[in-house]
Amino acid sequence: MSVSSAALLPTLVRRERASLTATLLAPAIALIVATGLNLGLYVLMGRDPVSVIYAMLLEPFVSFASFSEVLLKFGPLLLIAQGLAIGFRAKVFNIGAEGQFILGAIFASAIPIYFPQATGQWIWPAMLLLGALGGALWASLTAFWRVRFNANEILVSLMLSLVAAQLLYYLLLGPWKDPNGFNFPQSVMFQYDAMVPLLIEGTRVNVSLLLALALSLAAFVFMQRSFMGYKLQVGGLAPRAAGYAGFSEGSAIWLSLLIGGFAAGLAGAAEVAGPLGQLQRSISTGYGYAAIIVAYLGGLHPIGIVFSALIMAALYIGGDNAMVSANLPIAAVRVFQGSLLLAYLIAIAFVRYRLEWPRAHRSPS
Amino acid sequence: MSAIEFILAGMLAAATPFLLAALGELVVERAGVLNLGVEGLMAFGAVLAFIIVYHGGGHFLGFVAAGAGGAILSLIFAFIALGFRANQVASGLAIGILGQGLSALFGKSYEALTVPGIQKIAIPGLSKIPVIGGLFVQDIVVWLSLGATLAVWAMFAYTKTGLVIRAVGENPKAAHAIGYRVIAVRVATVAFGGAMAGFAGAYAAVVYTPLWADGMIAGRGWIAIALVVFGTWLTGRIFLGACLFGAVSLMGLAAQAVGVNLPSQLLASLPYLVTIVVLGVISADRRLHKLNGVASLGESFERTP
To answer: A341–B93: do the CB atoms touch at under 8 Å?
Structure first.
């Protein structure tokens, strides 16, 4: 060990056991640090920090109307993040949820676009199911490429997201464009029966929120209580041990990606069959990427993710508010998201490590 | 000009953003670090260069700022992934999201504005050869990138620095045991990779398409990471891969020029689809990966007491 660095810098020392306090505090500390850093940035940009902080952090919660908008963002983020977290715990890094979300929206939209006259209460459930299958199908390409050809799933799933965005533009500018839509890249408005029933009257919050919460519970049971979930986690933590125990890597990859794709596809379907009511170019405001942050911030744990999804949803609405009231560009939300994850990754290091400062007077030994 | 001539003439310029970013990532990965933030580092470098060139600072200063910006942002990645031993995948994604966010934030008021490009330099004689002559008419950055490719190749082939970087990536414990400072070497390579990504972004924004649009990097950072895999961590193959992607990204324009009528979205997806296919073909050969791959890639290094 070189003397100079040892004398000045603290070193990370592995704890005897993981710190539960640090686990629970890490997201809160990360949120405080990220808020502080971003406020500094807003001040540098010449914005009034008090009005930004009010618009971003408090306004989403002060009225029921704005809180209902938070719930509207909460649903898709929660769904996607729960699906991704299962894969992340198995060390299968599906970062293509954005594309799986888009494919879910496309598949779901096929029903009202090809059967605009159809009626009946079967339509919206069929759309949600078809959307979820579409997302899973898109993810299965990545799974196949990884299992069959050993191709890195991070790169393949991301590339497929970029392809999905182009596929969406193609449909909206071509075959699926609303003929009476003044050339806007959007589909026709869907019929009444294609809409997921509202949950709370007077808001846009619909039944899909209950679905997201129910699937969170399912994720909890699957990951914490089932043997299959246990196998997945072992595969992520100790791949060799998992191999010896006969847990196949291939099935872990397939399962992780199918679950992630299913959840993201369902979220995409719920978006077009819910608040949007049509297929649009801007169906996703980066949910697929934000959900990665939600999954990590929630400690990859189904319960933690419920809280982190709520925080991230509030951040989306707060960012919209700050854009209107404090003239803050919407890109500020992405900066906040990135810095939040960075701050969290530092904070979470203290679960396994503690800092040891060099002592000024070391007793000779 | 025929489609072939068009592609040959434009290929190297189109390849340059891929090449610069991939050379940087190659050095980073050779040291055993996986930095997935390249897309965001490029976007950050691009916006810095664009703002400086737009305000009359000139291209040289624009590139310097982009390189410095990329290096500084990537040092935040190093601080977290190497200093705090955080998950490298998550840290890389986070720095990528941050870089893209900062790029969008700073670039907000420059949307759709343009800057002047830079002049091309023709090699006398060679540039007059029919059909392939266009290859020898390139701007200074392209020539410098070719030089950088040679330099990186020579560094790994002939220098001690290259050997130390590889030792740190192959077996960090052994490298530490014989006295090399693993973390310091890794931090240095990450900063180098960040600077190269910054240059790559600058080239895209102020030379190749000197017009600002949010999201203008359009996946090129990710393709650069894929190129390192395609090239199986070998400089020469990465160069060939970058040329291939340069050509593929021009094919859309060439196809339209010769009257092939395909949806523009399909042409825009072409580089991504080619990435997926080539990734499958190259990765399927597991022997090749074992032979050239980096043993400790993505794993954090911890000194055992």
So the answer is: yes
- Going from the C-alpha of A212 to that of each of A139, A184, A186, B73, B140, the distances in angstroms are 19, 31, 26, 36, 54
Structure token digits, residue B45: 């470098």
A362: pLDDT confidence band, cut at 50, 70 and 90?
A: low
- B222 near A CB under 8 A: yes
Inter-residue contact A341 to A359 (CB < 8 Å)? no
Q: Give the mean model confidence (pLDDT) for residues A277-305.
A: 93
Helix (H) or strand (E) holding A272: none
Contact B41, B194 (CB under 8 A): yes
User: What is the least distance, in Å, from the CA of A294 to any CA of chain B?
Assistant: 12
List the structure tokens of A362.
């070391």
Å between B78 CA and nearest CA of chain A: 11
Contacts B21 to A, Cβ<8 Å:
none
Banded pLDDT at A18 (limits 50, 70, 90): confident
d(CA B213, CA B195): 22
Average of per-residue pLDDT values in chain B: 92
The distance from CA B269 to its chain's CA centroid, rounded to whole angstroms, is 19
Q: Over range A205-215, report the average pLDDT.
A: 94
Residue A31 is predicted with a pLDDT of 93
Number of helices (H) and strands (E) in chain B: give both, helices first: 12, 2
Angle at A339 between CA A333 and CA A341, to 5 degrees: 105
Give the span between the Cα atoms of A336 and A39, in whole angstroms.
10
Rounded Cα distance between B75 and B179, Å, is: 23
The single-letter code of the amino acid at B147 is G
C-beta neighbour count of A140 within 10 angstroms: 15
Domains of chain B: residue spans and CATH: 3-292 (1.10.3470)
Structure tokens at A301: 């744990």
Nearest CA in chain B to A141: B276
B215: nearest Cα among B111, B117, B115, B116: B111
Q: Are strands A353-356 and B137-139 parallel, antiparallel or unpaired?
A: unpaired
Chain B residues with CB-CB distance to A170 below 8 A: 263, 265-266
Tokens of B61: 């200063």
Does the pLDDT value for residue B34 go beyond 60?
yes
- One-letter amino acid for residue A317 of the chain: I
* Whole-number Å distance between alpha carbons of A278 and A281: 10
Comparing CA positions, the residue from A138, A151, A345 lying closest to residue A260 is A138
Q: How far is A68 from chain B (nearest CA, A)?
A: 26
Per the CB < 8 A criterion, the answer to whether B12 and B149 are in contact is no
**Interatomic CA distance for residues B301 and A66, integer angstroms:** 46
What residues in A contact B297, CB-CB < 8 Å? none
Write the DSSP symbol of residue A201: T
How many CB atoms within 10 Å of residue A143? 25
Interface test with B, best of A141, A154, A316 (most B CBs within 10 A): A154
Q: What residues of A are in contact with residue B219 (Cβ under 8 Å)?
A: 158-159, 162
Q: How high is the mean pLDDT of chain A?
A: 90
pLDDT tens digit sequence for B13-27: 999 999 999 999 999
Report CB contact under 8 Å: A335, B102.
Answer: yes
Say yes or no: ipTM exceeds 0.95: no
